[in-house]
Design a protein that fits this description.
This is Amino acid permease/ SLC12A domain-containing protein. By secondary structure, the chain is mainly alpha-helical. About 55% of the residues lie in helices and about 5% in strands.
Length: about 650
């Protein structure tokens, strides 16, 4: 080839020659990211083409070299140049290579777009977000999106429907299922830390049409959640003052949330950290107070213990069938209350060192939220009888007046604390609304980038903010100004119905994605040792989680069609609980027909296991793992590593 290799035009010709080629394997300091090692190679990054070119300085190298053992490459291309290059690879000093180098294995812009499997477009890894979130930010983001009205308010309705034993049974079983989801998600997110997280995994590893329908349903959940939580905040204010127009409070909360979300991601993370810490401290405080009250240490005295488990009883209903139906209805509520715990993957592209932070944040989030839920709900079952009329006195499903925590404090005869608890509930609601804007905007960016939403929504500004997606989310939040209307409860009931089962669908899709990912790895002869993090529950755990969630869907179908206390089938109740399923099916079929896709699943041969992957120097990674293993000599250290 004639030309000067130190001129940009020269490399443009080189790139054109390989334009349709597969991506080369990344190399760091002479070490292949696979099992093969190539010496004396260096890298030039041409930003105009989003391309990395690998230069071979040695002579008589073959132009193509198979790399069968490498996880994320199908064929390795080498450019044979018999000249002495002055370019040298910089040392990474044992750090995560992503700290100072962009190792996207999808180096050429003409890649197949995830939307329909045929249109060519650059990959989601091209979306550059600021990596300013560490473990505590990821943890509090998930806490902010999960711990809200589901724990503080809606648990009262679950207690009334199933009884205290149903609360504990349902939440424990759902938590075991969720542990498999978190591990599956941790494995995928550590390997593919892209904006939107599982939105991309579902599309790539299962099917573009399936991914489109799941992602759209999940996006609708967060879109509806923002105005719903703002209305809930205005209703909570009525505990102190019901004379001020609700829209005035909505305007105040809306402005505050908009301001925080227009900051850079680090400032947003700090704000969410403060809000989440208030909730965590409140949960710890209520746990201590609940134990004291249950043991008879309150102003009214008298040991309570398991009194309400005997009278009125541990389960609601006189017959086994009624009690089982009540338990099934609580399963649905329990699953919904954990919604948002998957936020650790949504923020993967903005986290520091995803290999370490994402798995740790996911596991710690799970244990923190599960411990909080199970402890609080056990105490609620001891302090509040399921037939307490105040559990049904709320003017809305988000009315703090029906909170079992507030009722428990009132039953204990403690003055002043009910007002404080309502303030905590208000903060929790605002925190969830704040997280909703974050999650929704990131989902919009990933969906826009893979062609499922208008491209304009994928814009990232100089400060790393998804500015257009955030503005679109805030625009939808203006629906919250119907708070002063008498019809607001009815409106939000049906808006929520549009995505009522989205959390369950999302978790099922994550487990399916993990199963398909592992199947493709085995089919393409890829070792699990190439993964930066391996799920502790494995594929068996994903199958278990999928089975439990399928049973929850059946339980939801039954209790929606034949609601508790009803006289036969109820069409309105069914569509309120199950409207999201037919909408999901319509989106799936519509996408299949529009893009004329006959294939049900992405074939294992064609599945892309290399694009957008977090590339690391395997030699450095193995050394880090060896040092970490040496530091875990005690039983406690090993225990904490596995579970935390």
């Amino acid at each position: 080839m004639v030309g000067n290799p130190f001129k940009k035009a020269y490399w443009e010709d080189v790139i054109d020659g390989f334009h349709a080629a597969d991506t080369p394997v990344g190399v760091v300091n002479g070490t292949s990211t696979g099992s093969n090692t190539v010496e004396n190679e260096s890298t030039i990054s041409l930003k105009d083409h989003h391309t990395h070119v690998y230069i071979n300085n040695s002579e008589n190298k073959s132009e193509y070299e198979k790399s069968e053992s490498n996880m994320f490459t199908r064929e390795k291309k080498e450019i044979n140049l018999n000249n002495n290059s002055s370019y040298n690879s910089s040392s990474n000093d044992g750090r995560d290579v992503d700290d100072d180098y962009d190792y996207n294995t999808n180096n050429f812009s003409n890649e197949k777009q995830l939307r329909d499997g045929s249109v060519e477009q650059e990959h989601i890894s091209k979306v550059k977000m600021n990596k300013d979130l560490d473990i505590r930010h990821l943890l509090t983001l998930a806490v902010g999106g999960s711990i809200g009205t589901g724990l503080f308010v809606n648990s009262g309705g679950a207690l009334n429907s199933g009884g205290p034993a149903s609360l504990v049974i349902a939440w424990v079983i759902i938590s075991t299922c969720l542990f498999t989801v978190i591990n599956s998600l941790g494995e995928l997110a550590a390997a593919f830390p892209v904006v939107g997280g599982f939105n991309v995994y579902i599309t790539r590893f299962v099917d573009p049409s399936f991914g489109f329908s799941i992602n759209l349903n999940y996006l609708a959940q967060w879109l509806v959640l923002l105005p719903l939580e703002l209305v809930a905040a205005s209703i909570t204010i009525r505990y102190w003052n019901d004379r001020i127009n609700s829209d005035a409070w909505v305007a105040i909360f809306y402005s505050a949330i908009a301001f925080v979300n227009m900051l850079d991601v680090k400032s947003f993370g700090e704000a969410e950290f403060i809000l989440s810490m208030i909730k965590i401290l409140a949960i710890i405080g209520f746990t201590i107070l609940g134990i004291v009250l249950s043991c008879g240490g309150g102003p009214r005295g008298g040991y309570i213990g398991g009194k309400y488990w005997h009278n009125p009883g541990a389960f609601v209903g006189d017959t086994a069938g009624t009690q089982f139906k009540g338990l099934c209805s609580v399963f649905v509520t329990a699953a919904f209350s954990y919604s948002g715990i998957e936020m650790t993957a949504v923020s993967a592209a903005e986290s520091l060192n995803p290999r370490k932070t994402i798995p740790k944040a996911a596991k710690r989030t799970f244990w923190l939220i599960t411990a909080s839920y199970v402890t609080i709900l056990t105490l609620i079952g001891c302090l509040v009888p399921y037939n307490d009329p105040r559990l049904l006195n709320g003017t809305s499903s988000v009315d703090a007046a029906a909170s079992p925590l507030v009722i428990a404090i009132e039953n204990g005869g403690i003055k002043g604390l009910p007002s404080l608890m309502n303030a905590i509930i208000l903060i929790a609601i605002i925190s969830v609304a704040n997280s909703a804007v974050y999650a929704c905007s990131r989902c919009m960016v990933s969906m826009a980038h893979i062609g499922n939403l208008p491209k304009i929504l994928s814009k990232i500004d100089k400060r790393g903010r998804p500015i257009n997606a955030t503005l679109a989310t805030l625009f939808f939040g203006l629906l919250s100004f119907i708070a002063a209307s008498d019809k607001q409860e009815e409106v939000f009931t049906w808006l929520s119905a549009l995505s009522g089962l989205s959390t369950i669908f999302c978790w099922m899709a994550i487990n399916i994605s993990h199963i398909r990912f592992r199947q493709a790895m085995e089919h393409q002869n890829i070792s699990l040792k190439e993964l930066p993090y391996i799920s502790q529950t494995g594929v068996i755990g994903s199958y278990y989680g999928l089975a439990v969630l399928f049973l929850v869907l059946i339980a939801s179908f039954w209790t929606s069609l034949f609601p508790l206390g009803g006289n036969g089938a109820d069409a309105e109740s069914f569509f309120e609980g199950y409207l999201s399923l037919p909408i999901l099916i319509v989106c799936y079929v519509g996408h299949k027909l529009y893009f004329k896709r006959k294939q049900i699943l992405v074939s294992l041969d064609e599945m892309d296991l290399h694009s957008d992957r977090k590339q690391v120097d395997l030699a450095v990674l193995r050394e880090e793992l060896r040092i970490e293993a040496e530091n875990r000599k005690t039983f406690l250290a090993r225990f904490l590593h596995v579970w935390c």
